[in-house]
Amino acid sequence: MKIEKAIEHDLNEILTLFNKTQSWLIEQGYEAQWGIRPFTENPGQIERFKHWLAHGTFYVLRHEGSIVSTLVIGDQAPAYTLAAFTHPPQTLYLEAFATNPAYRGKGIGKMLLQWAEQEAEGKKAERLRLDCWAGNHALRKYYQSAGFQEVGEFQVHTWPGVLFEKQADWLKRESDR
Q: What are phi and psi of 152, to 5 degrees?
């Protein structure tokens, strides 16, 4: 398995992966997390993904040539969180974090989160932030088990979200010296 920057040519495969993940979420009763409109039919999502691809912040994990997981890592806070939280400098934000449901339970998510921590260290970022739908309690526990702390909740129209943060491990190592 290899993590690499996504390229424009990957867009359709990425959108298909998001459709599969969305279908799985709906089957689990989490239709409010990403809605029910397929990503391949959502011009707003397609443009958002194209923006990340153009700015070189979209990463994919490939296994045997196929994309099995995605992650965006950048220094811009998602616009929908700006009204609810201050966003400190030297913070990296994780978005578009998705894994093909066929690969659930194989440690891929934790591997990508650890990779993001290494990226944060390389960029001297002091913290990582990510968010999720507040109604997915299993996902909230998952992020907490990965060392993220809940910063607080926010609302986007009728969609309740929760913001998570994790201090960069390299800072903890330096403060222990």
A: 160, 175
